[in-house]
Amino acid sequence: YNLGLCSSHKKHREDAFQYFNKALEVIDPDKSGIELETEIKFQLGKLHFENNDNFQAFEILNELAGGEETTQTQTQIKRMLGVVLCRLKQYKKAALLLQQSLSANKYDAVAMSYLGIVYLRQKQGEEIARSLCEQGCELLPDDIQLKLHLGIAEMACGNYDIAYPILKRCLLYNKTREAAAEEMAVYYLKINNKKRAEYWKRKSLQYVQ
What pTM, to 2 d.p., does this model score? Predict the structure, then answer.
């Protein structure tokens, strides 16, 4: 378990997966306590979450999610579950969990930003969504994923001149490049430049590969 934590902190995720899985194999909950087993599963779920292994993350985190508890760990689990469900396009369930996370921590920038995206996808109000994404960026200004969310929200609100430089910045990072290219294609369609729109549509497909 400790080796798994050390590897996780150093971003050596493959090693961390191996150590945590090995710990689960050898642990005896009757001797070590159910709390340690739960903590190991939490660390595994967190690793899958950070690795965008959405189905694996959901399976583990959903098992650990516990009712109306508001402990720090439970708040983290609900936030991560909400994000995973948003990635999997299960927006109704995602909204509930992200709202619960924000109720426990009103300064949770990630939950705030993803809730904004959920509202956009469910057509529950572009301006509310944009405001949530903007607040998330203010709380975590260096998070490029939250920057992307703001760019998407600005596009949805018709603020194309504001969205454009945000999306251009997101093109510089691997984790946001594909989605930013898709939004650039939308941007050029909105300003009636079909040639550039087609270019960015092709680029987004290249980034998938």
Answer: 0.88
